Amino acid sequence: MSTHYDDPHGDLLARALRAEAESIVPAGDGLTKIRGRVEQRRSRFRWLIPSASVVTAAALGGIAFGAYSISHNDDSLRTQQPANSQTASGGPTASTHPTSTPSGHPASPPVVSQTGTAFTGDVTPVWPFDNAAQVASWQQGYAADGLAPWHLDPVYTATAFVTRGIGFSGQNVVAVRDTATGHRSGDVTLGTRTTASGRTVVFGTAHLIRWGNGADAPWEVTGIDSTGARIDSPSRDSSVSSPLTVRYTLDGGAEENVTVSVHDGDSYAAAKPAVVGGGQHTVTFDLGNVTTTNGYVAVSDVQSGSGTSTLQRLIVTPVRFAAVAVAASNPPATQKYPTYFVAAAKDNRLAVYYAKGGGFARWLTPPSAHWPASAPYLDSAHEWVYYLAGADELRRVHVTGGTPETVQKGELQINAFAVTGASDEMLAYVAVGANTNGSQPSMTVQWKDAKTGAAGAIAFPNPATAEQLAWAPDGRHLAVTTRSGTAWGVRVYDTATATTADQGVAIPCAAGESCSAPSYDAAGNLYFVQAPDATTWSLMQWTGTQVKHVSTWTLTTQASPETATVDITPDAEAALVGTPAGETYRIEHGRATLLPTQASQPTW
Amino acid sequence: MIETVVADRGGRDPSSASWTDADEALTALYSAHYRGLVRLATFLLHDQGSAEEIVQDAFVAMHGAWRRLRDPEKAEAYLRQAVVNRSRSGLRHRKVEAKYAPKPSPDAPSAEYGAIGALERRSVIDALRMLPQRQREVLVLRYYGDLSEAQIADTLGISPGAVKSHASRGMTALRSTLEQLS
Predict the structure, then answer these.
(1) How far is CA B52 from the centre of its chain?
(2) Would the CA dihedral through A476, A477, A481, A485 be positive or negative?
(3) In 3D, which of A72, A77, A69, A67 has the Cα closest to residue A44?
(4) In whole angstroms, what is the distance from residue B36 CA to residue A292 CA?
(5) B163 touches chain A (CB under 8 A)
(6) Which 8-state DSSP code applies to residue A581?
(7) How far apart, in whole angstroms, are the C-alpha atoms of residue B38 and residue B48?
(8) 3-class DSSP state for residue A27?
(9) Quick check: A189 pLDDT over 60?
(10) For residue A231, what pLDDT is reported?
């Protein structure tokens, strides 16, 4: 002991500390562990082939990190292996995540090799594909037409998952680091770049793997980790049952706007917001309606202030819903979340899109310069897509493709149409006849039963017009949005008895606002869009006795609500709302997400 | 001193100038500093297991940064700063757990420091734990790490004046406990 301290008690403290230090004897395997992790890290960086955009983003990320990029949750704790085969069950085989202790460190020293750490196991796919069939579908489209090449870009896939898959569409998500490009698996570290400060806030690291062996094997997100927080339970890829208790830990500080959510395939099964401080927290969900095999649990934190919101943290842990036995063994007669939806795309064509994330899947109709395909309607059996071709023809095409068939063609111009539920034999359409009486053409809503030949019609005298139609699931009641000058209305007609426009049940529509885009769910609730202007839209529900508010959101691109479209899933868990500006919003649990479809009039 | 904990005492390996790669530096720095850094982190974290992990993290990070450091002295400073920063992060994480953690039983006094009883020593360590984080860091770096005020200021990223202030307040808080040892 050679040092002497000015403070008279300094020597005493130093002696006490050193005596205590003598009792602290580190384990003897420290150097072995460090060398192992160094080797592991070295093999990873050997793979790194950064793209120019990532390098730029990394520089920005460095600002956020400060002078030293020191993180106690070091990435080298995770293992990487370029595994790429498919499992017997069709899922990707990967090697991305070792078993972890609650502290986030490997439970046992990793096995080191020059090609990465060996860790083999099944990984639950998260996004954008659910199964090998979807992958094959995209690969066929890519081979034939070069469709959606972004599936071959891990950085795009990772950022799109956050902005489009989960729905943080307002966030400027950038990649800070990429260890995936050029390999079969890897990580993409993601951040939110704030325009005000120019800083990039790193919120998590996405793990990705290529699904399949070939050069066209697309990238699949398998989870996201975040420094300073973790989902303790359920564990990654575990089978979960209802009620599902999510246990997560925040290392410190108060998180402003934490949302814990459970995602059932494409959708939110449930989401619960919370304002919490550091420590462990528990949220329990009822998974009674889960019908898909795969899903994930997410914990996110969005910090708000000065009119902006910044995604600060995102954790995504994949789970399997196989343990929800009832739902798995008795799927509902109608699919809760269809794999695809159909929408009117560019070139006057209809296209099929992935319901999960809105990615392009394939064309459904041929291009046409003269007879634009519009207003597609996918029947409830998910078999036929009905659509308008040109001004006076109603057609249908099988959802798998093929040659379109003519359903209705006549002298009258068809403005809108609707087909019934399961039978698809009851057809109604709004027809506009020649200008026979005064300055405006006469308008009728007509319907006919293809099986019995029964038909009926309601005339709408000028200046009233019928705008859009929707059949109730009973195949008998028909909802019609009407307009007279600037006054909008919604009426439900009993087609067995109705003969005039003033009959039927009038549903309240707010004065001065438009009411459009009627759509029924399987329970007979009617939905429509109510909007005061071209920016703020609301989805409303008519239960038969009252109008309820479902969701209000602000459009990214202004659009007239008068020609909006709404399509509700059979169980009313979600809706697709299309705008004439070509935007598609997915509405779930009161939340609107803008899909990247760039097509209008979606139907599923 | 028992070991070169975190300060440069001029006892640098004379062959260090010839360290040509990060692997060599890692091995040499591990031999010189690993144990001391684990002890430092244990004082800051009160958990030897977490302390070892954090120090290992710091060495892995140092190895990655070696191309930039290329100097044993800088590497020591880097390791020291990394351990303190990571301990701070780890401590935030462990606050809730520590609240319910059982207190360790007093160790048998070592031969060298037998003059200070184990119970008294424990009371000092416990009193140290009760200090605000900055004060604890300053006192541990000063009286265990044997660092100068300037070195502590560099490590913690604060001014020398602030170091002096934290040290003074910390010692004042510990005074009654330390007086029992004298």
Answers:
(1) 12
(2) positive
(3) A77
(4) 53
(5) no
(6) T
(7) 7
(8) coil
(9) yes
(10) 92
Alpha carbon distance, N-terminus to C-terminus of chain A:
79
| Furthest CA-CA distance within chain A | 112
Alpha-carbon gap, residue A580 to A506, rounded angstroms: 26
Tokens representing A323 are 């343990």
Pick from A322, A297, A318: which is nearest to A239 by CA?
A322
Task: Judge contact between A190 and A205, C-beta under 8 A.
Answer: yes
Strands (E) across A59-134 are located at: 93-94, 121-122
Q: How much is the average pLDDT of A98-117?
A: 28
CA A85 – CA B75 distance, rounded (Å): 43
- For residue A233, give every residue at least 6 positions away whose Cβ sits within 8 Å of its Cβ, in sequence order, or none: A245, A246, A247
Apex A14 CA angle, A11 and A19, nearest 5: 125
Q: How far is CA A342 from CA A13, A30, A141, A157, A416, in A?
A: 74, 58, 16, 22, 17
Please tell me whether the interface predicted TM-score (ipTM) of this complex is above 0.90.
no
**Measured between alpha carbons, how far is A366 from A351 in angstroms, rounded to an integer?**
10
- Confidence class of residue A131 from pLDDT cuts 50, 70 and 90? confident
Q: Does A230 touch chain B (CB under 8 A)?
A: no
| Cα distance between the two ends of chain B | 21
A185: three-class secondary structure by DSSP: strand
B54, B92, B181 ranked by CB distance to A16: nearest: B181
Rounded-to-integer distance, Cα A203 and Cα A226, Å: 6
Average pLDDT over residues A230-238: 89
Distance in angstroms (rounded) separating the CA atoms of residues A466 and A404: 27
Of B52, B112, B125, the CB nearest to A26: B52
Question: Which pLDDT score, from 0 to 100, does residue B140 have?
Answer: 93
- Cis preceding-peptide flag for A243 (omega within 30 of 0): yes
Quick one: which of A328, A324, A331, A266 has its CA closest to A295? A266
Give, as one character, the DSSP assignment of residue B100: H
CA–chain centroid gap for A266, Å, is 6
Could A13 and B53 be called an inter-chain contact, meaning their C-beta atoms sit closer than 8 Å? Answer: no
Could you tell me the strand order of the sheet in which A574-578 lies? A565-568, A574-578, A584-588, A591-595
Q: CA of A25: which chain B residue's CA is closest?
A: B35
Distance between CA atoms of B165 and A232, rounded to whole angstroms?
A: 40
Contact residues, A window 63-82, toward B, CB-based 8 Å cutoff:
68, 70, 72, 74, 76
Q: In this complex, is the C-beta atom of A247 within 8 Å of any C-beta atom belonging to chain B?
A: no
Strand partners, A449: A426
Q: What is the dihedral of CA A325, A379, A421, A265, to 10 degrees?
A: 20
CB atoms A31 and B30 under 8 Å: yes
**Rounded to whole angstroms, how far apart are CA atoms B174 and B182?**
13
Residue A564's nearest CA partner among A537, A586, A541 is A537
B182 to chain A: closest CA residue: A12
Rounded to an integer, what distance in angstroms lies between the CA atom of residue A601 and that of residue A516? 13
- For A93, phi and psi rounded to 5 degrees? -100, 130
CA–CA distances in Å: residue B153 to residues A537, B39, B130: 57, 20, 22
Which residue in B has a C-alpha nearest to residue A14's C-alpha? Answer: B143
Global pTM value: 0.39
Mutation for B interface: A2, A4, A17, A78, most B CBs within 10 A: A17
Which helix (H) or strand (E) is A285 found in, with range? Answer: strand A279-285
Q: Residues A11, A16, A17, A22: is their CA dihedral positive or negative? A: positive
pLDDT of residue A600: 65
Residue of B nearest to A37 (CA): B60
Task: Give the amino acid at A355.
Answer: A
Q: Higher model confidence: residue A164 or residue A401?
A: A401
Place of tokens 């004897």: A25
Residues in chain A within 8 Å Cβ distance of B121: 16, 19-20
